[in-house]
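Sanity check

After download, print the first record. It should look like this:
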Amino acid sequence: MQRRSFMSVSAGVVLFVLLGLGLPFSSHAQEDAGAFIQNLADTALTALTDEKISNAERADRFRDLLQEGMDIPTVASRVLGPYVRRATDEEMKEFVSLLEENIVRKYAIMFKGYSGESINLVETKPLRGDMQQVTVSIQRTDGQPPVDVRWIVHKVDGQNKIIDIIVERVSMVTTQKEEFVSVIRRGGGKVESLLGELRERNAELATNVKD
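Expected structure tokens:
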């Protein structure tokens, strides 16, 4: 069976994946991560699915929610794989910024495509350290089978932050690491080669997304 790439699903599912839209609230203490994603959902449904706002405004709102909900620096370190040790402080700082911008430019526009998918909480369980895993099943509106999604959440200064998203056993971090490491290797092992690639991608995405 051919392995599907991360987020090769409908726009509505992407919304759920990134911000946990519609996750039902649970009062159990160990399900603190579920409550955290619910809070993001409440804001996202109000702020991002309004068809009257411009694409630029939607992107700005999405960026705010992404910064609130995802630990971008940790994700950035993990997706660089072994090359994180080669990155200078300046390269790492730019990479975090470029990665965030890439996510925003690729996915913010998809919030126009929200089509009422429903979501059922399967479980929330503790992992090692301060991490928790929130597992949900997304019921799609296009007749396709449900999609299983897991969010891996940890604490940053006492606040919950997403550090990985797993869609039907495909990890966002693993998928991005495989892609980015390949780019760096083709560039002679230089992190700058990936930075240049992301600059070009973001510039192209910026010209393709118009109000």
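If your output differs, re-run the checksum step. Summary of this record's structure: The chain has a mean pLDDT of 80.
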